[in-house]
Amino acid sequence: MRRIIINADDFGLCSCVNEGIVRAHREGALSSATIMANMPGFAEAVALARDNPDLGVGIHLNLLRGLPLSDPAKITPLLGPDGRFLVSPRKLLGRIVSGKTGREVLERELRAQIEKVLWAGIVPSHLDSEKHMHAFPPVFRVVIDLAVEYGIKKVRFIREFGLSRHASQSAKAVFLSLCCARVSSRIRAAGLVIADRFYGISNSGRMTAADLRRLIERPEEGSVEIMVHPGLARPELFALEALTGPYYINRFREGEWRAVTDPSVRALFGDPGRRLISYRGLP
Asked: What is the pLDDT of residues 67-81, one digit of tens each?
Protein backbone atom coordinates (compact mmCIF):
# COMPACT_ATOMS: atom_id res chain seq x y z
CA MET A 1 0.00 0.00 0.00
CA ARG A 2 1.33 3.44 -0.96
CA ARG A 3 0.05 6.10 1.45
CA ILE A 4 0.09 9.62 0.06
CA ILE A 5 -0.35 12.92 1.90
CA ILE A 6 -1.07 15.99 -0.20
CA ASN A 7 -0.51 18.91 2.14
CA ALA A 8 -1.31 22.59 1.63
CA ASP A 9 0.94 25.04 3.41
CA ASP A 10 -0.29 28.49 4.56
CA PHE A 11 -3.77 27.64 5.89
CA GLY A 12 -4.88 30.73 7.81
CA LEU A 13 -2.99 33.21 5.68
CA CYS A 14 -6.15 34.92 4.38
CA SER A 15 -9.67 34.11 3.19
CA CYS A 16 -8.80 33.38 -0.43
CA VAL A 17 -6.09 30.92 0.58
CA ASN A 18 -8.43 29.32 3.13
CA GLU A 19 -11.14 28.96 0.50
CA GLY A 20 -8.72 27.48 -2.00
CA ILE A 21 -7.51 24.92 0.53
CA VAL A 22 -10.97 23.86 1.64
CA ARG A 23 -12.23 23.60 -1.93
CA ALA A 24 -9.15 21.59 -2.88
CA HIS A 25 -10.01 19.23 -0.03
CA ARG A 26 -13.70 18.95 -0.85
CA GLU A 27 -13.42 18.91 -4.64
CA GLY A 28 -9.95 17.48 -5.19
CA ALA A 29 -7.17 15.39 -3.71
CA LEU A 30 -6.00 17.60 -0.83
CA SER A 31 -5.86 15.63 2.41
CA SER A 32 -3.90 17.87 4.79
CA ALA A 33 -3.04 21.49 5.57
CA THR A 34 -0.83 23.36 8.00
CA ILE A 35 -2.16 26.43 9.78
CA MET A 36 -0.33 29.72 10.44
CA ALA A 37 -1.16 30.92 13.94
CA ASN A 38 -0.09 34.55 13.47
CA MET A 39 -1.90 35.41 10.24
CA PRO A 40 -5.20 37.29 9.67
CA GLY A 41 -7.08 34.24 8.38
CA PHE A 42 -6.34 32.08 11.43
CA ALA A 43 -9.76 32.26 13.12
CA GLU A 44 -11.52 31.54 9.84
CA ALA A 45 -9.21 28.58 9.20
CA VAL A 46 -9.99 27.17 12.64
CA ALA A 47 -13.72 27.33 11.89
CA LEU A 48 -13.20 25.72 8.49
CA ALA A 49 -11.15 22.95 10.09
CA ARG A 50 -14.04 22.18 12.42
CA ASP A 51 -16.41 22.03 9.43
CA ASN A 52 -14.07 19.68 7.54
CA PRO A 53 -13.03 17.02 10.06
CA ASP A 54 -11.45 14.76 7.41
CA LEU A 55 -8.89 17.46 6.63
CA GLY A 56 -5.77 16.82 8.68
CA VAL A 57 -4.50 20.09 10.16
CA GLY A 58 -0.95 20.57 11.35
CA ILE A 59 0.97 23.71 12.37
CA HIS A 60 2.95 25.81 9.90
CA LEU A 61 5.49 27.29 12.30
CA ASN A 62 6.43 30.76 11.16
CA LEU A 63 9.56 32.71 12.08
CA LEU A 64 9.69 34.79 8.91
CA ARG A 65 6.45 36.65 8.19
CA GLY A 66 4.14 39.07 9.95
CA LEU A 67 3.96 39.90 13.64
CA PRO A 68 5.03 37.59 16.47
CA LEU A 69 2.67 36.09 19.02
CA SER A 70 5.09 36.34 21.93
CA ASP A 71 6.29 39.52 23.63
CA PRO A 72 8.39 41.40 21.02
CA ALA A 73 10.68 42.72 23.74
CA LYS A 74 11.72 39.14 24.54
CA ILE A 75 12.40 38.01 20.98
CA THR A 76 14.05 41.07 19.43
CA PRO A 77 16.69 39.00 17.54
CA LEU A 78 13.88 37.55 15.42
CA LEU A 79 12.52 40.95 14.42
CA GLY A 80 13.35 43.87 12.20
CA PRO A 81 13.12 47.53 13.24
CA ASP A 82 9.41 47.55 12.32
CA GLY A 83 8.66 44.86 14.91
CA ARG A 84 7.87 42.26 12.25
CA PHE A 85 9.71 39.07 11.37
CA LEU A 86 12.64 39.45 8.99
CA VAL A 87 11.04 37.77 5.89
CA SER A 88 14.50 36.74 4.66
CA PRO A 89 15.64 33.21 5.60
CA ARG A 90 19.25 34.32 5.04
CA LYS A 91 18.98 37.12 7.58
CA LEU A 92 17.41 34.83 10.16
CA LEU A 93 19.97 32.10 9.60
CA GLY A 94 22.74 34.66 9.89
CA ARG A 95 21.47 35.67 13.29
CA ILE A 96 21.16 32.05 14.41
CA VAL A 97 24.62 31.06 13.19
CA SER A 98 26.21 34.16 14.74
CA GLY A 99 24.61 33.40 18.08
CA LYS A 100 22.46 36.55 18.12
CA THR A 101 19.33 34.39 18.08
CA GLY A 102 19.57 31.66 20.69
CA ARG A 103 17.47 28.66 21.57
CA GLU A 104 15.44 30.49 24.23
CA VAL A 105 14.24 33.08 21.72
CA LEU A 106 13.29 30.47 19.11
CA GLU A 107 11.50 28.34 21.66
CA ARG A 108 9.50 31.26 23.08
CA GLU A 109 7.90 32.16 19.74
CA LEU A 110 7.42 28.60 18.50
CA ARG A 111 5.79 27.66 21.80
CA ALA A 112 3.41 30.63 21.54
CA GLN A 113 2.31 29.51 18.07
CA ILE A 114 1.77 25.90 19.10
CA GLU A 115 -0.22 26.93 22.16
CA LYS A 116 -2.46 29.27 20.17
CA VAL A 117 -3.41 26.41 17.86
CA LEU A 118 -4.04 24.09 20.80
CA TRP A 119 -6.13 26.70 22.61
CA ALA A 120 -8.25 27.04 19.46
CA GLY A 121 -9.24 23.40 19.85
CA ILE A 122 -7.20 21.93 17.01
CA VAL A 123 -5.36 18.66 17.61
CA PRO A 124 -2.36 19.11 15.32
CA SER A 125 -1.55 16.28 12.96
CA HIS A 126 2.07 17.35 12.52
CA LEU A 127 4.54 20.23 12.42
CA ASP A 128 6.21 21.93 9.47
CA SER A 129 7.27 25.51 8.83
CA GLU A 130 7.31 28.57 6.61
CA LYS A 131 10.20 28.35 4.14
CA HIS A 132 11.16 25.06 5.87
CA MET A 133 13.04 26.94 8.58
CA HIS A 134 12.53 24.01 10.94
CA ALA A 135 14.87 21.95 8.72
CA PHE A 136 17.92 23.87 9.91
CA PRO A 137 19.44 21.84 12.76
CA PRO A 138 19.46 24.56 15.47
CA VAL A 139 15.74 25.17 14.82
CA PHE A 140 14.87 21.51 14.26
CA ARG A 141 16.31 20.58 17.66
CA VAL A 142 13.92 23.04 19.30
CA VAL A 143 11.00 21.78 17.21
CA ILE A 144 11.74 18.17 18.15
CA ASP A 145 11.72 18.99 21.86
CA LEU A 146 8.47 20.96 21.56
CA ALA A 147 6.87 18.19 19.50
CA VAL A 148 7.66 15.71 22.27
CA GLU A 149 6.48 18.08 25.00
CA TYR A 150 3.13 18.75 23.34
CA GLY A 151 2.57 15.22 22.09
CA ILE A 152 2.71 16.11 18.40
CA LYS A 153 4.32 12.95 17.13
CA LYS A 154 4.79 13.74 13.44
CA VAL A 155 6.99 16.26 11.66
CA ARG A 156 7.84 17.11 8.08
CA PHE A 157 11.17 15.61 7.11
CA ILE A 158 12.58 16.75 3.78
CA ARG A 159 14.20 14.04 1.71
CA GLU A 160 14.00 15.30 -1.86
CA PHE A 161 16.85 14.63 -4.28
CA GLY A 162 16.56 15.03 -8.03
CA LEU A 163 16.51 17.54 -10.82
CA SER A 164 13.51 19.51 -12.01
CA ARG A 165 12.96 22.24 -14.57
CA HIS A 166 13.78 24.76 -11.81
CA ALA A 167 17.46 24.30 -10.98
CA SER A 168 17.58 26.70 -8.00
CA GLN A 169 14.62 24.97 -6.37
CA SER A 170 16.22 21.57 -6.92
CA ALA A 171 19.40 22.82 -5.24
CA LYS A 172 17.33 24.14 -2.33
CA ALA A 173 15.64 20.74 -1.96
CA VAL A 174 19.01 18.99 -1.76
CA PHE A 175 20.36 21.50 0.76
CA LEU A 176 17.32 21.17 3.03
CA SER A 177 17.41 17.39 2.73
CA LEU A 178 21.02 17.38 3.91
CA CYS A 179 20.05 19.64 6.82
CA CYS A 180 17.30 17.25 7.87
CA ALA A 181 19.66 14.28 7.61
CA ARG A 182 21.83 15.85 10.31
CA VAL A 183 19.05 15.48 12.90
CA SER A 184 17.60 12.15 11.74
CA SER A 185 19.05 10.20 14.66
CA ARG A 186 17.61 12.72 17.12
CA ILE A 187 14.18 12.40 15.50
CA ARG A 188 14.32 8.63 15.86
CA ALA A 189 15.48 8.87 19.46
CA ALA A 190 12.53 11.17 20.24
CA GLY A 191 10.09 8.63 18.82
CA LEU A 192 8.75 11.02 16.18
CA VAL A 193 7.20 9.80 12.93
CA ILE A 194 8.11 11.06 9.46
CA ALA A 195 6.94 10.20 5.96
CA ASP A 196 9.24 7.94 3.97
CA ARG A 197 9.54 10.50 1.16
CA PHE A 198 8.81 14.14 0.48
CA TYR A 199 8.23 16.06 -2.76
CA GLY A 200 7.35 19.64 -3.51
CA ILE A 201 10.30 21.98 -3.20
CA SER A 202 11.73 21.29 -6.66
CA ASN A 203 8.45 22.38 -8.28
CA SER A 204 7.28 24.69 -5.52
CA GLY A 205 4.53 26.99 -6.77
CA ARG A 206 4.56 25.40 -10.19
CA MET A 207 3.06 22.00 -9.42
CA THR A 208 0.84 20.92 -12.30
CA ALA A 209 -1.69 18.11 -12.54
CA ALA A 210 0.87 16.22 -14.64
CA ASP A 211 3.49 16.67 -11.90
CA LEU A 212 1.09 15.38 -9.27
CA ARG A 213 0.13 12.37 -11.37
CA ARG A 214 3.81 11.57 -11.93
CA LEU A 215 4.59 11.72 -8.20
CA ILE A 216 1.50 9.75 -7.20
CA GLU A 217 2.23 7.03 -9.77
CA ARG A 218 5.87 6.54 -8.81
CA PRO A 219 6.56 2.85 -8.13
CA GLU A 220 7.48 3.32 -4.48
CA GLU A 221 6.04 1.71 -1.40
CA GLY A 222 5.55 3.40 1.94
CA SER A 223 4.42 6.93 2.71
CA VAL A 224 5.03 10.20 0.90
CA GLU A 225 4.14 13.84 1.49
CA ILE A 226 3.55 16.09 -1.53
CA MET A 227 3.58 19.80 -0.66
CA VAL A 228 1.34 22.27 -2.50
CA HIS A 229 0.21 25.89 -2.07
CA PRO A 230 -3.35 26.20 -3.40
CA GLY A 231 -5.29 29.43 -3.19
CA LEU A 232 -7.50 31.77 -5.18
CA ALA A 233 -6.00 34.87 -6.80
CA ARG A 234 -7.87 37.81 -5.29
CA PRO A 235 -6.74 41.34 -4.40
CA GLU A 236 -6.55 40.59 -0.66
CA LEU A 237 -3.82 38.03 -1.34
CA PHE A 238 -1.46 40.61 -2.79
CA ALA A 239 -2.53 43.40 -0.44
CA LEU A 240 -1.48 41.17 2.46
CA GLU A 241 2.13 41.38 1.35
CA ALA A 242 2.35 44.71 3.18
CA LEU A 243 2.19 42.59 6.35
CA THR A 244 3.95 39.43 5.22
CA GLY A 245 6.57 40.71 2.81
CA PRO A 246 6.71 39.57 -0.82
CA TYR A 247 5.43 36.05 -1.50
CA TYR A 248 6.57 34.85 -4.92
CA ILE A 249 4.25 31.88 -4.61
CA ASN A 250 1.15 34.10 -4.54
CA ARG A 251 1.36 34.34 -8.33
CA PHE A 252 1.11 30.57 -8.63
CA ARG A 253 -1.42 29.58 -5.97
CA GLU A 254 -4.38 29.39 -8.34
CA GLY A 255 -2.42 27.19 -10.73
CA GLU A 256 -1.66 24.77 -7.93
CA TRP A 257 -5.32 24.88 -6.86
CA ARG A 258 -6.29 23.82 -10.38
CA ALA A 259 -3.72 21.03 -10.26
CA VAL A 260 -4.97 19.57 -6.97
CA THR A 261 -8.61 19.75 -8.09
CA ASP A 262 -7.95 18.20 -11.51
CA PRO A 263 -10.24 15.12 -11.78
CA SER A 264 -7.39 13.04 -13.19
CA VAL A 265 -5.44 13.45 -9.95
CA ARG A 266 -8.26 12.37 -7.68
CA ALA A 267 -9.02 9.43 -9.99
CA LEU A 268 -5.60 7.91 -9.27
CA PHE A 269 -6.77 7.04 -5.77
CA GLY A 270 -9.23 4.57 -7.21
CA ASP A 271 -6.26 2.22 -7.43
CA PRO A 272 -6.39 -0.18 -4.44
CA GLY A 273 -2.62 0.11 -4.12
CA ARG A 274 -2.84 3.79 -3.18
CA ARG A 275 -4.45 5.51 -0.24
CA LEU A 276 -4.87 9.25 0.27
CA ILE A 277 -4.23 10.08 3.92
CA SER A 278 -3.27 12.95 6.20
CA TYR A 279 -0.47 12.76 8.73
CA ARG A 280 -3.06 11.30 11.09
CA GLY A 281 -2.93 8.17 8.93
CA LEU A 282 0.78 7.54 9.50
CA PRO A 283 1.37 4.73 12.00
From this structure: 999 999 999 999 999
